[in-house]
Amino acid sequence: MNVLITRPLIDAEDLMGKLFSLGHKIIHIPTLKISSLKTNSIDLSKYDALIFTSANAIRNLNIINHDANKLCFCVGSMTEKIARNKGYNNTISAGGNINALKNLIMHSEKVNNKSKIAYFSGDNLTSELDYELNKEGLNIEKIINYTSEKITDLNEENKKILYNYPPDIIFVYSARSAESFMEISKNYSLHPLMTESKVMCISEKVAKMFKLNGWKKTEIFNPGEEILNLEKKID
């Protein structure tokens, strides 16, 4: 199966290696450039818990008073893994779904409306998690510590690969990445070819974007379950 991955290499290398070992042909077309945003050092002692909805938020932390036991709510297993690698031991994963993360935080016995929670994120988000949690009475402070820039260029080598090996499956991890990929498809006259592929989307919002732009085959997936999804399709 030809599998197209749109994540930056740092986030996709492990998955790509596993897919390759299973016999899949991997096409890597990164659609976002992630850059650290300069911020003042954040004093973690001011917060009772942390929220991470991406590994990039963890990689770009600028903090003082690191506490290995600080409670960390993570959107999925990969984000939790990066948090663990950064030295946080008290982590909880929501399984890759933003709505599940919201419910996990709201119903956690470890936080309440007196808790102060830091939400580290990028500048372009698919959901308004902080707004929704604040509406529920929680005290969430959003701290933007990285930016994402769309990549809309495609080199000749990758263009030839896409023509010769049209992807069966495309994994897309954010609304901004979806915008970038659709721009690439149109700019390089790949749209008729790409719309035959099934797009695995991180959310209903992303799936709707593709449907409105001519893709007929879309499906929702949770990050960390890419291989499981492919195995189901092969069976």
For the structure shown, list the relevant keywords.
235 residues; Rossmann fold; 6-stranded mixed β-sheet; 5-stranded parallel β-sheet; 37% helix; elongated
> Judging by the overall fold, what is the CATH architecture of the largest domain?
3-Layer(aba) Sandwich
Question: Mind telling me the C-alpha Rg?
Answer: 19 Å
| Estimated share of beta-strand residues | 15-25%
User: Using DSSP, what is the number of strands?
Assistant: 13
Mean pLDDT across every amino acid position: 92
- The helix tally amounts to 10
The 3D shape can be described as elongated
Q: How many structural domains can be distinguished in the coordinates?
A: 2
Q: What would you call the structural class?
A: alpha/beta
Estimated helix fraction: 25-40%
Distance between the termini: 12 Å
Q: From N to C, what is the helix and strand string?
A: EHEEEEHEEHEHEHEHEHHEHEH
Report on this model:
The chain has ten helices and 13 strands. With 235 residues, it is α/β, with parallel strands linked by helices. The chain has two domains: 2-31 and 151-234, Rossmann fold (3-Layer(aba) Sandwich), CATH 3.40.50; 35-146, Rossmann fold, CATH 3.40.50.10090. Helix 7 (175-187) runs parallel beside helix 9 (204-212). It is elongated and about 55 Å long. The chain starts with a strand and ends with a helix.
In terms of topology, how is this protein built?
Blueprint: E1 2-5, H1 9-21, E2 25-28, E3 32-36, E4 42-43, E5 49-52, H2 55-59, E6 63-64, E7 71-74, H3 77-85, E8 91-93, H4 98-106, E9 116-122, H5 129-135, E10 139-150, H6 156-164, E11 169-172, H7 175-187, H8 191-194, E12 198-201, H9 204-212, E13 218-220, H10 226-234
Parallel strand pairs: 1-2, 1-11, 4-6, 5-7, 5-9, 7-8, 9-10, 11-12, 12-13
Antiparallel strand pairs: 3-10
